[in-house]
Amino acid sequence: MLVATALAVLSIPFVEGSCIHESPLTNLRRSPQIAGRDVPVNNFSYIGVTGPLGWTGLSTANVNCSTANVQSPINIDQSIISLSTSNPQINIPNVGSAEFENLGTTVEVVINGTTTFEGKTYSLKQYHFHTPAEHLIDAQFYPMEAHFVHTALDGTYLVLAALFELSLNGTNAKFLDPLLSGPLQAIEKPGSSAYTGPLDFSDITKFFTTVPLFKYTGSLTTPPCTVGVTWLVAGTFLPVTPQAFLGFKSVLKFNARYVQNTPGQQNLIELAASQLPK
Predict the structure, then answer these.
(1) Residue 51, in any domain of the structure
(2) Taking every annotated instance into account, which residue ranges of this chain make up the domain Alpha-carbonic anhydrase (predicted)?
């Protein structure tokens, strides 16, 4: 099995706070924050009538969500989905600060960078998180997932995805820790933003350029569910401590789209609708 936990690849000790009877966020050590601007909140959700089953009804632009036969996330069945024969070349400059936003449906860090894969160069726009993870691997689910979203000049997308496993030795993936030292608490409210401290991307860059990556063509996992997205999903897991996971979960809530059909097969909403009694 190519999937293995990578606790030693991307981790540094995580410092716990002193309060143990309050919310997960109060247990994360605070640092001084610079308040950000108000940001727009998405009009979709992950539950009820504005959840994934109702996304097409929110806008005619979202028709792919219920009709396209190439959708994400998926169950990465290793007998069907192949490993990429190459890893991307990635350049994400370290920064002194970046904007961290709560869009109501996720939290994202706005950042610049470039990734070249199979001769094509993409610009990194942001990375964001899902709890639980959206992709499954061989029908197993995971607590959290990070997506590094890129676009090319021709409008196509590339997403680098990393799944997390709970760490039992008190370590987080290194790129998580600057978000846990105060910024996450500062953007608890949807529509809020804050500025992080210094961000070092050397370890996450090394991760995506060295680990096995599952490759498939899918879609954005949020409206408008744009198709033709190149997905590279890491076959090695990143560590997240239970406390850090609970901190993210308390802000993100449930924000995972349900698993879609195997790429190329009928959209599950369309399939279910066809089976309703006439």
Answers:
(1) yes
(2) 42-278
